[in-house]
C-alpha cells in the first residue's frame, strides 16, 4: 500500500515476547550468563569461599598439630592434601591460609579502588594546577619500582605495627595498606579519563544548566556512569593483590611462619619439590584457580557493563 512502511523484523524482541519489559538486572544477568567461563568462575570462587569459611567445621584439624610419624606423607584419607615436613595437615593449613589470602585480596582492592576513585574524580573535575599536581603524583607512583618499595616499607614498619595491633593483625594491615597503596594509580587514570569524557555529555550539561552544583553532578550523574570500568578494574586488583601477597610470603616477608598463607606454604615447600611435590602443588593450584576465576569474572563484568557490546 502506498505510503505504508513494513515493520522491521528487528523491532521485535529477540525472545519473541512482544511488549515484555526487561529490567536492568535481568538484562545484566542475560549478558553475564552468555560468558560461560565467567559463570563457571563464579561457581569455582563460590566453592573456594565456602571452603575456607566452612572448612574448619567440616575438617576440624588444628593447623599446628605436629606428627613426625606422618612427616611428608602423601595425600591419603587421613590427610587428603598430605602433610608437610613437621607432619602438619596441609588441608587444614590450606583452609586457614585461604581466608587470609582472599581477605588480603579483597581488602587491598578496596583500598586501591577507593584511593584511585577519589584521586581520579578530583583530577577529572578540577582544572589547572590541581589536575596537573594529581597526575604528576600518579605518574610518580607509577614510575617507582614496586617490589623494592614494598620490601622497604615492610622492613621499616612491620615491628611497630606488630606491637600496636599484634603479630597477625599488624602484618595484615601493613600488607593491605602497602599493596593497595601501590596499586591505585591505574584506577585513578581510568576514573579521570571517564570523568573528562562524561562531564561533556548532554545529561551533565543539562544538570549544569538546571543549576546543579559540582558535587551533585559528580555524585548523581558522573560517578554512577563511571563505575563500570572501575568495577572491572577492581576484580583485576583482587587477583593482583593475591599474587602480591603470595610473592611477599614466598620471599619470607609476609605473615609470620606460623601463619600458613598460600604463599607461605609455597615458600616452605620450595626445598621439597623433588621428594614431596604435593606440598607445593595444592597451594599453587589454589592461587592459580583464584586468580584465573577472578580474571574471568572481570571479563564477564566487562561484557555486562559495556553497552556497546551486543550479546
Folded structure, characterized:
This protein is an all-alpha fold. The protein is built from eleven helices and no strands. Helix 3 runs parallel beside helix 7, helix 8 packs across helix 9 and helix 9 packs antiparallel against helix 11. The longest helix is centred in the C-terminal third of the chain and has 37 residues. The chain is globular and about 80 Å long. The two termini are 36 Å apart.
What attributes characterize this protein structure?
globular, mainly alpha
- How many H/I helical runs? 11
Alpha-carbon distance between the termini? 36 Å
Strand content: under 5%
Give the helices and strands as they follow along the chain: HHHHHHHHHHH
Structural class: mainly alpha
What share of residues is helical? 55-70%
Report the sheet with the most strands, covering strand number, pairing sense and barrel closure. Answer: none
Count of DSSP strands: 0
Low-pLDDT stretches are 1-18
Task: Report the radius of gyration as a whole number of Å.
Answer: 25 Å
* pLDDT averaged residue by residue: 80
Layout of helices and strands:
Layout: H1 24-34, H2 36-58, H3 90-125, H4 129-143, H5 146-165, H6 167-181, H7 185-198, H8 202-209, H9 214-250, H10 262-269, H11 278-305
Helix pairs in contact: 1-11, 2-3, 2-11, 3-4, 3-6, 3-7, 3-9, 4-7, 5-6, 7-9, 8-9, 9-10, 9-11, 10-11
